[in-house]
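Page 37, continued from 36.
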């Protein structure tokens, strides 16, 4: 991702920027969410220009928009075109390939409709889980409910990171917030992945018990 774009985002953060770039992050165009939500949440604590709750709301709306783009493209273009794009040079420039789409489809098949909730919390699946939902023609109402809930949880976690950086560090700029959030993104993703795995295990166990 271009350093100039990241710098521009950090210098111009507002609710519209949060919506726009979280929509991009949630689509097939690669963009790191830690550039947007933690710095915006930190800014909401450091000044009166934003509100942390509205940051989460804006980020979740953006995530829904991006997810709907993937869902609609997959649903109305179909599997052959989706895979052809994944195999194309443009798809590779978007960091998309056949293996990633197959992984997302496999995840959707194994976990069903709830995968659009849990998938929003899983690295390497989060941006693509809308594609198999569209290919499977999952009802759009159900898709939006699970996507909104999952995106809301993830964005709340990211906002809490920004809040924690403001509360417990001496960081003074949004660029420093981004660098710190980026530094610990892997650890946060692993922790969330463990929680998701436990939650899925509980759901599967209860379903089998019934």
């Amino acid at each position: 991702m271009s350093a100039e774009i990241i710098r521009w985002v950090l210098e111009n953060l507002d609710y519209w920027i949060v919506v726009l770039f979280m929509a991009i992050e949630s689509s097939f165009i690669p963009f790191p969410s830690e550039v947007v939500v933690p710095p915006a949440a930190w800014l909401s604590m450091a000044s009166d220009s934003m509100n942390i709750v509205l940051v989460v709301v804006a980020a979740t709306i953006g995530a829904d928009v991006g997810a709907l783009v993937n869902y609609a493209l997959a649903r109305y273009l179909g599997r052959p075109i989706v895979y052809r794009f994944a195999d194309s040079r443009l798809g590779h420039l978007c960091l998309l390939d056949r293996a990633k789409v197959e992984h997302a489809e496999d995840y959707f098949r194994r976990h069903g409709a709830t995968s659009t909730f849990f998938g929003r919390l899983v690295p390497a699946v989060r941006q693509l889980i809308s594609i198999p939902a569209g290919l499977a023609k999952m009802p759009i109402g159900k898709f939006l409910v699970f996507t909104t809930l999952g995106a809301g949880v993830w964005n709340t976690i990211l906002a809490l990171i920004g809040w924690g950086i403001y509360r417990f560090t001496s960081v003074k700029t949004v660029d420093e917030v981004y660098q710190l959030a980026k530094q610990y993104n892997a650890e946060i993703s692993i922790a969330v992945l463990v929680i998701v795995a436990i939650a899925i295990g509980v759901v599967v166990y209860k379903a089998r018990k019934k």
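The radius of gyration is 17 Å. Flag for discussion at group meeting. Residues 121 and 192 are 7 Å apart (CA to CA).
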